């Protein structure tokens, strides 16, 4: 059987399996204990405006639907929902949506209750299926290893949260997570080779230097006002939680810079083992400058995307953007700036570590290392 035919059979089987998973998730109502209702009809009417001093419009929905599971399966449901135009804390529902109900009761065959949320698992399953299909189609074997590293990292992260709720210090857990995420992700995706170990060393050293600088700044500036952190119930470990957020938040971007630099240096030296050190450092510097802008923008968009609803709500209340950023989002601003500093630090660190691994280790000794550091410093 030809390679092309084996690939077609593989993707056909994969599509069938993924489609079956999505179909199963879309029809798993009997898996849930909560009552699920499919909305059949929705009628919207405006209620009032400027509630709680905000310039936001509110609407009331009268919904009718059909119960999908439980003792009232097949019965008609009559529900009410209220939502705002901004949609920050609520949402409208459309015919075809499926919602969870709480405080369910039945009178004269009609089910009533409170809507506790939209059933989204089928959409998540469809997105997961599309992600798996695309990553395997584009990256093939590397894509499979990436999926494996993602699964392992999610499992480790989930277990660490369980350990935190049982009383383990979150900063200790964050340190262990940085080591495990860095090692597992790079080893699984890039393989067991010098390039991977250079990237692992570069990532860990860059994160350590970034945190050291952050601690020094905290020591001499009076620290951060942790009152701006939201959804915090325990006030005893806010500095540790914030530090853990910084370590894990910037890890992905720093790993990306480190593996890019290590791969480029490895490729340059493999093509020309006698390439002058000056040219090697210049190439690493140029590559670092090329990826620096995109990585910093990735950090910016990552942190700002989760705050878009909050920004829109406050701007609708006539709060200026710079006031929102400075007084309502300072923690996101801190995380972005510290993560960006970590990216910048990782460029010279990755160049130096790559030189030690690929070109000069075992050949130039301590004197050569010092000379290499001096050359990098002059270039940067």
From TrEMBL:
Source species, domain of life? Bacteria
Write down what this protein is called.
YibE/F family protein
Q: What is the lineage of its organism?
A: Bacteria, Bacillati, Bacillota, Clostridia, Peptostreptococcales
